[in-house]
Amino acid sequence: MLVLVVDSSTPAVTAALAEIAADGVTLRAERRTVDARAHGELLAPQVAAVLAEVGARPADLGAIVAGLGPGPFTGLRVGLVTAATMGQVLGVPTYGVCSLDAVGHPAAAGEPVLAASDARRREVYWAVYDGAGERIAGPDVDVPALVAERARDLGATAMVGDGAHRYADVLGLPLREEPRYPSAAALAGLAAERILTAAPGERLTPLYLRRPDAVAATARKSVLP
């Protein structure tokens, strides 16, 4: 089955096509651009590009997988709105995956790891994974010093992700270079069982973890002097 994978939870805007079968997941095309300010401009052209690369049409898609975050409000909603809209128009199921899982799960090679992405405001989104890649804490958002303490308490012996790169000195664990951003192959793999068993499609609920910076005014201001 041909599946579209999108993620916009980090500065890396990702679109990919994966072939999902009983014997595994094959990534057939991928586009990734790291630009924290251009999610809306980049994602749709990238979706079109991966479809064109394999000579497919939107109607050829059997499902859509989207990274649910956590991530900043503006960027994250671009991917989720795109996935939800395409799923509704095409009549195909949508499946969500925690974006941190697509960083921490493939990085956990027999030892507990901390996965962290940049949450701005000098904070990180984080989760901890055991040696088998199962999430044992998080996702959550905290200042790096508190995350370092929690990760040590949970036995993490390495760290991965863009947030780990940015705050390596505070987090204080051995840093793995990759994956720095959510892996399209991991996102597809983490949704594969649901897709292959024809599980009902899911509402794509974003993991914002905190309120957006912009809030509605609570009172009208007078325009008179």
UniProtKB/TrEMBL annotation:
Residues 36-148 form the Gcp-like domain. CDD domains: ASKHA_NBD_TsaB. It comes from the Bacteria. SUPFAM superfamilies: Actin-like ATPase domain. One of its GO terms (biological process) is tRNA threonylcarbamoyladenosine modification. InterPro entries: ATPase_NBD, Gcp-like_dom, T6A_TsaB. NCBIfam families: T6A_YeaZ (TIGR03725). This is tRNA threonylcarbamoyl adenosine modification protein YeaZ. It comes from Micromonospora echinospora (Micromonospora purpurea). Gene3D superfamilies: 3.30.420.40. Transmembrane segments: none annotated. It holds the Pfam family TsaD.
